[in-house]
Structure prediction request, 216 residues.
Amino acid sequence: MFRKTLRSLGFAPFLLTSALAVSSSVAPPSIAFGAFWETPFVVKQTKEFQQVVKPLADLISKGEGDYNSVNRGYAGDTPGGIQGLTGLTFENYTVGQVMDMQRTRLYAVGRYQFIPKTLRFAVAMSDVDRMDMFTPETQDKLFAALLLYKRPAVGAYIRGNHDHQGWALNELAKEWASVEYRYGRGFYDHIGGNRALITRVEAAAVLEEVRADYSA
Prediction:
């Protein structure tokens, strides 16, 4: 509840220590903590931010899955998705029920392949409740929460709070295994069957698109 209160007031916990270099030979961006706070920090309403980042969500989904995708620990190990396992789509389950299933039979779930700790984090940092149904709209809200709070360098870049595109792209690749990190490889290539499917050039183009839309 405390985290949700912070979120509602517009404060994001910037995890600056997660920033990576734009290239392996260059130091991480030297951005003072206060740089994000040069003007009063106000994030547009969650629904509006969620709508703005839809093109980025659509791109990520091309490499991750659809709203009913699941895996049990290895990418592609459950081609039938949740419906193949239970006969029902995720719209028929609450967020809490999905979390419970992740304790025993599921690992990554949904369009953005939320793993257990990531799903818990996104719920805590959004207005999504355990009793909400795990619908496409709910999953999109949770995706937006990850950009704002788990990978704040991405959210801050979209909002125009910094200009280090490479930093934002690195953070995208650290969150979603299907995004290229460098030299055609993903950050998690060959771990759990993961490999990069979305090029860095593609991700950069869409990132610029949503950044422009946000400031429009």
Notes: Residues 45-215 form one domain. The first helix runs from residue 2 to 9.
